[in-house]
Amino acid sequence: MSILSLTAVELGRKIKAKEVSVSEAVEAVLAQIETYDKEYNCYISVDREGARTRARKVQKLIDSGELTGQLAGVPMAVKDNICTKGLLTTCGSKILESFVPTYSAQAVLNLENAGAVIIGKTNMDEFAMGSTTETSAFGVTKNPWNTQHVPGGSSGGSCAAVAADECFFALGSDTGGSIRQPASFCGVTGLKPTYGTVSRYGLVAYASSLDQIGPVAKDVTDCAAVLEAIASYDPKDSTSIKRDDYDFALALTEDVKGLRIGIPKDYFTDGLDQNVRAAVQSAARLLEENGAFVEEFDLSLVQYAIPAYYVIASAEAGSNLARFDGVKYAYRSKDSKGLHEMYKKTRSEGFGEEVRRRIMLGSFVLSSGYYDAYYLKALRTRKLIKNEFDKAFEKYDVILAPAAPTTAPRLGESLIDPVKMYLSDIYTVAVNLAGLPAMSVPCGVDLKGLPIGVQLIADCFKEKNIIRAGYSIEQAVSREKCEAARAAESKATEARN
Amino acid sequence: MADIITDEMIDYVSILAKLELTPAEKEQAKNDMAKMLDYVDMLNELDTSGTEPMYHVFPVSNVFREDVVVNGDDSEGMLKNAPERKDNFYKVPRTVD
Asked: Has residue B51 been placed in a domain?
């Protein structure tokens, strides 16, 4: 069995048992990148020598018994909007084309303390603004399942890298679905934690009140392990939350007896692809067979989440991205006459189209005369949406829904109409507005063979509910797959005889 | 509502956003923003009177700490990222004539 087919936790176990060395694991991943990344373009930068040196150091610490965690020695990737000390961090933007941070994000430090080995930085939509990883200044990432299709976004590089075995897990960030939607498109498992669970220190801010870092992994067990490693209270992030418990892996149980699952009827309307609908409904049936209580309910205000999200996210982006002015970081336009012209030229040349569009919208909705009508209106809508979720969680432990209305679109299809691209986030953005934890778990494929993810949403701080439900679905799906394979095998044997 | 996006409005917004747009980009921005705002106007169907704006997920207030330096001097590394520097300073184009 190849090293690459192991999950992160399985590899960690083998490293601990001295069956695999850290260097072997790193070399296996680097070879995989060498073979496939020219085509997929999951990575913006790969730190080959850094990873090799680190592998030797981590091996020593494991051998001496100083590193005992389950991710010790496991190679991983980091989305390129998460700061890594001494490693290029571009946010997929020309304006940060040569930015090298002097510090690492707290989530990265936590993983380094756990002994994980950073392989490189993954591609993304510019400043995480996009749903396809096509707005990156460093080329598009292709979906490893079918290279004619996008991997989703904005954490498309992280999700494609995990799908293509170019790392064992990755960090992504999720502002409006940027972990869950590409995880669904790439057939991997991605989790957005409760707002405040993972420190945002060192995450280049897009929309600060919505942004969360989270794991992208091969399965639910890995997701829980990575979440345990990265979640921490951090005084450096003023919105960081001190939680009562961090032992997410305790929820890895197939038993869902008594778990109350709500399916929002409003998420299963006309815009939903038939294959996606069928796969998501079958995931709900699997939970029911495992003892969960499943029923449909009305979650209203669904259609208002996207307009509210784009107003709020653009407003926050407009403010956050004001710091990129050609003075402190990376790119500066040549030949500007004065300071003000330098600012304007740098930003116009350095930012791509989608980023400029959102900065313009953000500046407008915050401008005097329109602030109340747009920005405050959106924030009031946000409160109403949060109230709807509060009501739902009085009755249910988990809300089960699609992660995206379709499977991965073809390359180039989505950029033609921005509003249409925004609509692909319809099932994910409300979760960010309300600060909830949610996870996308693979639950099937469509007729073209492209993966489908089911989204599991819980109330704030109830990650364990979605991990439990996700694990239950995952085990049942893999059993079904095995049975189908066995049935096909015995049919083939019969035919041969 | 989208008819508020006039040429003057685009000029004003690009000053706020510190962006310089070509005439073609301005026209594009006008169309994009009008289309987006038409869509956003859907929010007016909702009665939000009496609802407090939700800026944050949890009630957050200022978080205070002792005013003690905890980080080292990273100035050299930070200045390395500057497009232009002079000694220990960021260098910018002329600001006054």
From this structure: no
Tell me whether residues A102 and B74 touch, CB distance under 8 A: yes
Measure the CA–CA gap between B76 and A100, rounded to whole angstroms. Answer: 12
For residue range A421-445, list pLDDT tens digits in order. Answer: 788 899 999 999 999 999 999 999 9
Determine the Cα–Cα distance for residues A407 and A273; give it in Å rounded to an integer: 8
- 3-state SS track over chain B: CHHHCCHHHHHHHHHHCCCCCCHHHHHHHHHHHHHHHHHHHHHHHCCCCCCCCCCCCCCCCCCCCCCCCCCCCCHHHHHHCCCCEECCEECCCCCCC
* Three-state secondary-structure class, residue A303: helix
Report the chain B residue with the minimal C-alpha distance to residue A318: B17
Whether B92 is covered by a domain: the verdict is no
Domain assignment of residue B72, yes or no: no
Q: Is A178 a catalytic residue?
A: yes
Q: Is residue A7 part of a domain?
A: yes
Model confidence over A431-481: pLDDT tens digits?
Answer: 999 999 999 999 999 999 999 999 999 999 999 999 999 999 999 998 888
Q: Is A333 a catalytic residue?
A: no
Query: How far is residue A111's CA from residue A209's CA, in Å, rounded to a whole number?
Result: 24
The total of structural domains in chain B comes to 1
Say yes or no: B94 contacts chain A, CB-CB below 8 A.
Answer: yes
**What span, in angstroms and rounded, lies between the C-alpha atoms of B67 and B50?**
40
User: Quick check: is A229 in a domain?
Assistant: yes
**Nearest chain B alpha carbon to A373:** B44
What is the span of the domain harbouring residue B23?
A: 2-45
A363 is annotated as an active-site residue: no
Residue B20 to residue A308, Cβ atoms within 8 A: no
Q: For residue A89, give the DSSP letter.
A: -
Q: What is the CATH number of the domain that holds B36?
A: 1.10.20.60
Note whether residue B80 is domain-resident. no
